[in-house]
Amino acid sequence: MDSHAAGSSSGGSGDGAAQPRRNSRKPKYSKFTQQELPACKPILTPKWVISVFVLVGVIFVPIGIVSLRASQQVVEIVDRYDDACVPAGVTDKLAYIRNDSIPKACTRNLTITKDMKQPIFVYYQLDNFYQNHRRYVKSRNDGQLRDKSKASKTDNCDPEAKTVDGKPIVPCGLIAWSLFNDTYNLIRNNETLSVDKKGISWKSDRDHKFGSDVLPMNFQKGPLQGGKILDSKIPLSEQEDLIVWMRTAALPTFRKLYGRIYVDLKENDTITVQLENNYNTYSFSGKKKLVLSTATWIGGKNDFLGLAYLTVGGICFFLAFAFTLLYLIKPRKMGDNSYLSWNRATLGR
Amino acid sequence: MQEIVSTFAEMKLFHVKSLGSRAVPKTAALDGEIDLKTRASPPPCVGLEFEQLHKIKGVIECPIPDKDIRRFDANIRLFPPFIDNDICPLTINNTLLQSCYLRNTEWACGVAVYTGNETKLGMSRGVPEPKLTAMDAMIDKLTGAIFLFQLTVVVVLGAAGNVWKDMEARKQWYVKYDDNEPWYQILVIPLRFELLCSIMIPISIKVSLDFVKSLYAKFIDWDEDMYDLENDIPAHAANTAISEDLGQVEYILTDKTGTLTENKMIFRRCCIGGTFYGNESGDALRDVELLNAVANNSPHVIKFLKVMTLCNTVIPIKSPSGSILYKAQSQDEDALVNAAANLHMVLVSKNGNNAEIHFNWRVMQYEILDILEFTSDRKRMSVVVLDCQSGKIFLLSKGADEAMLPCAYSGQKTKTFVDAVDKYAQLGLRTLCLGWRELEPEEYTKWSQSFKEANSSLNDREWRVAEVCQKLEHSLEILGASAIEDRLQDGVPETIEILRQSGINFWMLTGDKQSTAIQIALLCNLISSEPKGQLLHINGKTQDEVARSLERVLLTMRITSSEPKELAFVVDGWALEIILSHYTEAFTELSVLSKTALCCRVTPSQKAQLVKLLKSCDYRTLAIGDGGNDVRMIQQADIGVGISGREGLQAARAADYSIGKFRFLKRLILVHGRYSYNRTAFLSQYSFYKSLLICFIQILFSFLSGIAGTSLFNSVSLMAYNVFYTSIPVLTTVLDKDLSEKTVMQNPEILLYCQAGRLLNPSTFAGWFGRSLYHAIVIFLITIHAYANEKSEMEELSMVALSGSIWLQAFVVTLEMNSFTFLQLLAIWGNLIAFYVLNFFISSIPTSGMYTIMFRLCRQPSYWITLVLISGVGMGPVLALKYFRYTYRPSAINILQKAERSRGPMYTLVNLESQLRSDKDNMMVAGSTAPAKNKSSVYEPLLSDSPMASRRSLGPSSFDVFQPAHSRTSHPRNIKAN
Predict the structure, then answer these.
(1) Are residues B526 and B443 in the same domain?
(2) By CA distance, what is A24's nearest residue in B?
(3) CB under 8 Å to A246, separation ≥6 — which residues?
(4) Is A329 near chain B, with CB under 8 Å?
(5) Is B611 within the bounds of a domain?
(6) A-B interface: how many C-beta pairs under 8 angstroms?
(7) Fewest C-beta in 10 Å: which of A197, B116, B293, B624?
(8) Where are the transmembrane segments (chain B) (predicted)?
(9) Which residues of chain B have pLDDT under 50?
(10) Are B751 and B838 contained in the same domain?
C-alpha cells in the first residue's frame, strides 16, 4: 500500500515525488486570524440599563439647572423698530425706504428692566433674512478680501462682481453689497453712551481673512445701492462691521454684534436710541430689532439648553423608574433556554 | 521542449523522447488535477527518427476550436514517403494543451494546432457567471428604493424651492434674482438638491463591503479548525464575495463518493464464479481460501485477476527503489490493480501497447490492442488484449452490474452475481462486475476496422464509438464481482445532523447505484430507517410508470406531511431524466415538500439540472463535491464547495470554497457563513444610516435656507464624513461575534435567522431609516436652538451639527456591536479623537473656511453641553427600545446571548427528535391560527418578534415542508419572490 502514500504526495510540492513534506500549508496561528481576540461582551442587563438611565438623569438635571440659571441671569432688552420707524402716514414702506431724499432718523426709548453689568452687547437682529441662501452665501471671494493683488479676482461674486463698466468691485459679492447700514446712537440721561465698535469681529478674521492693505474699490457704484457704503480709505481689516456681516448666519433669524457698552445700566434707566433706519427689510417684511444684552459663560439668553437638559434628565429618571417597575413585576430570568421558541413547545408538553 | 516550460500553443505531438515515446505533461494549471497524464505521439509518427522530423509533410484535420479540454477529435494524414495514405485519428491523448508543464520528458516535438484565444484554455476562459449573494441582491434592492426616495425628495423639494423662489426669494432683494432669467433656471434648484442628496446612496458601502468580504474570505483561509492535517490542505475561499450566502444556505446538494466518503478505495470482498471471498474477515486479501485458490491456479480466479490487472488505464512506474507505483485515473482501478498485485498478479510495466505481468514470478506479455474507454453513459470499459504467448485475443470488461450483466452470454446464470452485488451494495460497498470473452481473430479485425473509423469521425465521435463498442461487448463470461470499500469520512453523520438541525435540507446526488446510496445515506444520518423515517421510491422505465410513481410519492408526501416522520424520496437517473423533461412541475412540488432526497445514477448534467431546479424555486443552494463530475453542479449552485480530495483538484478549482474534509462544512456554514451574514447585515444598513443621516440634516437645513439647496456642511467635511469619520469604526464589525462559536454549534437552529434573512430586510432597514431620520431631527433641532441668535454663525453651526453626527455614530456602533475587542474600542473611540485631531488641523490652516472654528468651539462650554445633549436625546430612546425588546421581546439570538453570558457555554437539553416534534406542533398552531396570512420568512422582521411571530417565523422556516401544500403558490417559500 505504499503506492498510495507516494501517489498522494506527488505534485504536492513540485516534481519531487517521494520527498517528505517540510513546509506545511497549515495556517499560522494568531488570535486575530482565528477570530479569538479577547473580547468583552456586554449585554443589556436590567441593572446596567437602569443604572445608565439613572446616571444620565443624575448628570443631566444639575447641568440643566446650572445652564438655566446662567441663561436666566442674562438681561436682554429687545426693541423692534422696523415698523415703528416708518412715519405714520407712509403706506408704501418700500418706496419710503428706497427714497434717499427722505431723512430716516428715528428715536426709540428703551427702559432697562434689570440691572445690567458691563460689558453690555449691542446687537442688531434681523428676522426672515436669509443670509444662508445658496445664491447669497457663496457670493464672495475670500482671496480678494485677503490679498490686495487679487483685487480683480471676482469669481463666485456674480451678480455683484463687476461694475457696469467692467471694473472689479472690492469687496465683491452679494454679502458685502448688502451690508447692514442702520446706525444706533445710545443716549442715557442726555449723555451719549459710547458704543465701542472696536474688536467686535473675530480677531482671526481681521488678521488672516481681511487684508490690512485691501481698500474698498468701486463699491456700491451700481444703480441699486444695497447697503452701507464703505469708506474707501479704510482697509478691510478695519471695517469691522463688514467683517461681522461677512460671517454669514446659518439661520434666517440672527443677531450680529454692533458694539459693546462698557457702562453698567441700572434698572429703570431710560435709554434713548437715535437711529438711522436705512436698511430695507420692508420688501420681504423682515423685522429689525435692536438688542442690548449681557452675557454669561453660556453666552446670551438662551433657555433651550437648560430646559432640554431638565426634560431629558426627567425622562431618564422616569424610564429608569419604569424599567425598574417592569423588572419587579415581570422578572425575566437571564438566559432561560425555555424561552427559545424551538424549546418552548417541548417543555410545555 | 524542455522540462518545466509552459506550452503556449496547443501542440500535436510528433515525437517525444522520454519514457517510451510519451510525454508526461502536468495539467495542474489547466484542470487542477495534479496527477500526471500521459500523452503519446500518434501511431504513424511512432518510430520516426529525429532527423526525419523536419521533413514530415501531412495534413491535420481538426474541428473548430471549442473549450472541452477532455476531447480533441482530429485526423492526421501524412504524405509519402513517410506513411501510407491512411487516415489516423488524433485524440486528446496526442495533444499538449496550452499551459501544461512537461515532466519526465526530455523533449517533445509537435505542430501547433490552435494558438492564442483559440486554444482550449483560451476558449474556456470565458466570463464566469458572477455570483450575487442574496444579501447583495437585497442591498441592491434597498439602494434602488433609496434612489427612488432620493428622486422624490429632489422633485418635491425642487418644486417647492421654485415655488418659494417665486413667492418669497424675489422679494429678498439681497439675493438679487434676475427677473427675466432664462427658462432653464428652473432646473437649478432641483439640480442643487440632487447634488445635496447624491450622498444619500453611500458609495462607501461598496468599498467597505469589499474590504470586509475579503476579510471574511481570509478568515476562512486562516482557520486552523478547517485545516486538514492529514492531507495538508487548508480551507480556501476562492470567491471572496459570497461568504454571506453561506449563512443563508437552504439546500445542500452533496456528492457521495469522495465527499461523504473518503474515496480511499480498498478492495474488500469479491465473488468469483459463485464463491464469496472475504465474507468472514471482511478483507478478501486475507481470505485464506482466496489465497489458496490463487496458489492453486484456479482458472476462474486467474481470469478474474487478469481482468483486474489489465482492464484499466493504470500506468505502472518503477520508482528508483524498485517498488512499482501505479498512476491511476480512477481510484477503483487503483484499488483493483493494487489488490491484484497483493494476490501476486503484478502489473510490472506498460510500454506502449505492451503490458508485462508477473504472476507468481512467471512473466506474461500482453499487447493491448484497443481500449474501449469508460464513459458515464456506457458505465463500463473494456480492453482488447493479445496474449503474446498463445496469440489469442481477449476482450476484458469491467463495469457496473446493470451495464455488465445484460452482456453476459445467454445461458450464464447471473443470479449469484446479482445476489452478490445486492449484498455488497447493502454493506455500502462499491461493486464492479468483471467479465471476459475470447475473440475470434476475424471478428476482431472486422470490428477493429469500424472502431478505427468511428474513432476518426469528426462528428458525434463519442456516440459512434459507444455504438461500435456495444458491438463487441456481448456474450461475455461474467467472472465475478468485486466489492470495494469506500469508508465514510470522519464526522460526516454529526455534520449532517447539525446542519439538518439548522434547517438545511440535504440532497444526495450520486452516480452510484441506488442500494449503495441508500446504505450510505443511512450510515450518515441522512435518512432514518422505519418507523422513524420512510423512503419513497420513484422508479419506472417508461414515462407512464414514472408518472404514476411520482404521483404516488407526491400523494404520500402530502398525506404524511402531518405525521412525525422523516420522509425522503429516492429517484434514479433514468426516472429523473423522464421527470425533468416531462414532469418538472410535479417534481418541483415534491422537492419543496421533501427535506431529503437521494438521486442515484445521475449524470453530471442532471446534477446541475437539479441545482437549477431548486434555484428556480428561490432556494439558496450549496453544492459540494470532489470530482470532475461535480464541477457543473458546483458552478451552477449559488455556492460551490469543492473537496480537495483524491480525485484531483478539479472540483476544488471550480468551486467558490474548497475544504479538505466534509466535516468542515458545518464550520464553514455555521461559523463563517453566519458571522459573515450578521456582520454584513449590520455594516450595510449602518452605511445607509450614516449617509441618510447627513442627508436628512441637509434637507432639514434647506427648510431654513429658503429651499434653495444650500449645503450646511462644507465640502471638506462632507468628503471626510464618508471617507474617514464614519467608515473606519464600522469596519471593525468584522471582529464582531454575537454568539460564541460554541453556542452556535450547540444551537444550530439559530441559523434560521440568517436563512430567513431576518437581519437584513426591508423592515429592519425601515428601522435604520427611521433611526437616521430621528437622529437627524435631534441633531438639527438641538443645534439650531442651542446655536441660535448671535451664535448662529454658519461654520460654527455646521461643525456643531457634524460633531453631533459623529458622536451619535460612535454611540450607535457601540450599541450595535455585540463584542468588543481592543481593536473595536480603538477604532470607535480612536476615530472620535481622530475627528478632532483632523478638524484641529484643518482649523489651523488660515486659508480654509474652517479657520479657528474648531478651537473656538472647543473653548465654548455650550458646545460640549450641546453635544452631550444630542447624544443623550439621540441614544436614550434607542437604548430604551433596544433594552425593552431585548428583555421582553427577545429574539432567539438575544436569549442565547444572555444564556451564554450568564452561565458560560450551555448545553441544550433537547435532541433532534423532540425538536422536530416541537416544530411540527408550532406548525400546526401557526396553521390553525393564521391560515390566511402567508408566511414570508424573508421579510419577517426582528422587530415584530412577539411570541407568536417568533414561533411562526422560526418554526416553519425550516420545517415548512410539513405544511400541506394545496397548490404550488400556497407554499410559503415559493412566495418569496412576491
Answers:
(1) no
(2) B232
(3) A140, A145, A171, A175, A176, A205
(4) no
(5) yes
(6) 330
(7) B116
(8) 145-164, 692-713, 768-788, 797-815, 821-842, 863-884
(9) 1-9, 15-22, 27-35, 125-127, 905-978
(10) yes
pLDDT at B69: 63
| Binding annotation of B | 255-257, 333, 374, 398, 430, 510-512, 601, 607, 626, 629-630
Residues in chain B with CB shorter than 8 Å from the CB of A201 are none
* Residues B729 and B838 grouped into a single domain: yes
Query: A55 at the B interface (CB within 8 A)?
Result: no
The Cα B300–Cα B296 span in angstroms is: 11
Tell me, letter by letter, the H, E, C secondary structure of B626-693: CCHHHHHHHHHCCEEEEECECCECHHHHHCCEEECCCCHHHHHHHHHHHHHHHHHHHHHHHHHHHHHH
Long-range CB contacts (within 8 A, 24+) of B558-565: B558/B593, B558/B964, B558/B965, B560/B534, B561/B593, B561/B961, B561/B962, B561/B963, B561/B964, B562/B920, B562/B924, B562/B962, B562/B964, B564/B916, B564/B917, B564/B920, B565/B531, B565/B532, B565/B533, B565/B534
CB contact under 8 A, B899 and A42: no
Q: Is the Cβ pair A256, B706 closer than 8 Å?
A: no
CB B700 within 8 A of CB B775: no
**Interface contact A299, partner B, CB < 8 A:** yes
Q: Are residues B517 and B643 in the same domain?
A: yes
Domain end call among B84, B110, B125: B125
**Shortest Cα distance, chain B CAs vs residue A320, angstroms:** 9
DSSP state at residue B793: B
Give, for B441, the enclosing helix (H) or strand (E): helix B441-456
What is the 8-class DSSP label of residue B129?
P
- Banded model confidence at residue A332, pLDDT cuts 50, 70, 90: low
Contact A26/B706, CB-based, under 8 Å?
Answer: no
Judging contacts by C-beta atoms under 8 Å, the chain B residues touching residue A346 are 910, 914-915, 917-918
Radius of gyration for chain B, computed over Cα atoms and rounded to the nearest angstrom = 35
- Which residues of chain A are within 8 Å of residue B227 when distances are taken between CB atoms? 25-27
Query: Would you call B452 exposed, middle or buried from its count of C-beta atoms within 10 A (0-12, 13-18, 19+)?
Result: middle
Task: Verify whether residue B73 is a known catalytic residue.
Answer: no
DSSP symbols for B459-485: SSHHHHHHHHHHHHS-SBEEEEEEEEE
Residue B701 and residue B657 in one domain: no
Identify whether residues B414 and B321 lie together within a single domain. yes
Could you tell me if A98 lies within 8 Å of chain B, comparing CB atoms? no
What CATH number should be reported for the domain holding residue B361? Answer: 3.40.1110.10
Q: Indicate whether B552 and B609 sit together in one domain.
A: yes
B495 and B471 belong to one structural domain: no
Domain annotation covers residue B162: no
Number of folded domains that form chain B: 4
- Residues of chain B contacting residue A74, judged by C-beta atoms under 8 Å apart: none
Q: How far is B776 from chain A (nearest CA, A)?
A: 17
Q: Is A135 on the interface with B (CB under 8 A)?
A: yes
Q: Give dist(CA B63, CA B250) in Å, integer.
A: 43
Q: Are A250 and B847 inside 8 Å of each other by CB? A: no
- For residue B25, the model assigns a pLDDT of 56
pLDDT tens digit sequence for A197-235: 998 999 998 998 898 888 898 888 877 888 888 888 899
Tell whether B133 is covered by a domain. Answer: no
CB contact under 8 A, A11 and B232: no
Q: Which domain holds residue B785?
A: 200-217+671-894
CATH assignment at residue B656: 3.40.50.1000
The answer to whether A94 contacts chain B (CB < 8 Å) is: no
In the prediction, which pLDDT does B85 show? 56
The cell numbers describing A344, all together, are 418552548
Contact B472/B246 with Cβ under 8 angstroms?
no
ipTM comes to: 0.90
**What's the rounded Cα separation, in Å, for the pair A64 and A312?**
9
